[in-house]
Amino acid sequence: MSNLVFRLKSLIFGGRDERLSIPIMDGALKPNNALEKAPALCEQRGLEDLAVGADGELYAACGPAIARVERDGALTEVARFERDITALAALPDGRLAAALGDTVALDALKPKGPRVEAVDGQRFNAVTALAAAPDGGLLIADGSTTRPYAQWSHDLLEKGRTGRVALCDAGGRARLLASGLEYAFGVLAEADGRALVSESWRHQLARVGAGAKAAALTNVTGYPARMTRAGGGGFWLCVFAARTQLVEFVLCENDYRRDMMRTVDPRYWVAPALSSGEDFREPLQGGSVKQMGILKPWAPPRSYGLVVRVGDDFIPKFSLHSRVGGRRHGVVAVAERGDELFVLSKGAEQILRLSVRDASERGLE
User: Which residues of 104-121 are buried (b: 16+ CB within 10 A; e: fewer)?
Assistant: First the structure.
């Protein structure tokens, strides 16, 4: 009813739908080529998440396996599961926790280690991120209760708001911290006992806990995903795709959106993607997006690569980009080890390695 009233008002009095207004990338978010120029440490199909263990080693979730990433980029398998891993986290006591979509292995290096499968009697469904809690527990972000992890674009176009955040204590008992989230795709512990969560479809970061939710960073220019603490305070925020007015418009047009989902292959939906430019059947191939075979730099980004360095005050400091026409898109994980910054581009199936100092200088250019 409210949507109908708004449309009638717009037709009679003019004006625009604020849902189609997207903040431009400027200031700390000014585009650069830092990710596109970064050296690749390794390239492997199925890369999903990163974690730096208590032993100082870098670990990567890669399909159904956990691999130790050696200094030369070689991958050494240390654990394997029956299903693909959807999230990974290192705990201070040396354990690695791994999510398998609807369950979480609390000690992934032990084949028959303990697992947690539900919170408040409801099974997990699409665990997207894990993070260590100060008391030895584990924070669990469950993106959606209706769609599995691989169908995140379905959840977006269905305007899903069933995401949850749970806290699992050292004994394996989970309690709910927040529910009704618009796709929880990242979680980070806060010093006051609360958790910081990425709400991808709401384009914001929110603090949750003690039965309350408060926005911390709003109107993000893309879809926020996983986060990790940064040396010197603040954190790194992954943005797995940029927002576009076309997608925002499709989300407002319910009949078109439903018909598209019913009749078109999901690979070709008007929706954000982790990579693009490889198939002529993708949307946005016309409309002067390309000229003489070259993609225009101002073309709408179906996929994009973006990492944002955010301060303790939740103000972005600088950012690292792979722009339209680049390859290092779909950034879903970041890990920091000393002066090394590791960035996982799921679109390129690569782990990039940068110097934190160089990343700061490039991001501020």
Answer: bbbbbeeeeeeebeebee
Q: Residue type at 295?
A: L
The mean per-residue pLDDT over the stretch 24-36 comes to 93
d(CA 292, CA 100): 45
Query: If we measure between CA atoms, which residue out of 261, 275, 281, 253 comes closest to residue 154?
Result: 261
| Predicted confidence (pLDDT) at residue 300 exceeds the cutoff of 80 | no
pLDDT one-digit tens code per residue, 166-216: 999 988 899 999 999 999 999 999 988 899 999 999 999 999 987 789 999
- pLDDT score for 116: 96
Task: Look up residue 209 and give its amino acid.
Answer: G
Name the nearest CA neighbour of 47 among 35, 36, 58: 58
Question: How many angstroms from the chain centroid is the CA of residue 282?
Answer: 22
Residue-level pLDDT at 250? 94
Burial class of 145 by CB neighbour count within 10 A (0 to 12, 13 to 18, 19+): middle
Cβ atoms within 10 A of the Cβ of 232, count?
A: 10
Q: How far apart are the first and last CA of the chain?
A: 48
- Which tops the pLDDT comparison, 358 or 249? 249
Classify strands 222-229 and 235-242 as parallel, antiparallel or unpaired. Answer: antiparallel
Residues 35 and 328 sit within 8 Å (Cβ to Cβ): yes
pLDDT of residue 14: 45
- What separation in angstroms does the CA of 255 have from each of 221, 247, 249, 252, 281? 26, 14, 12, 9, 22
> d(Cα 49, Cα 26) in Å, to the nearest integer?
28
Q: How many residues does the chain have?
A: 365
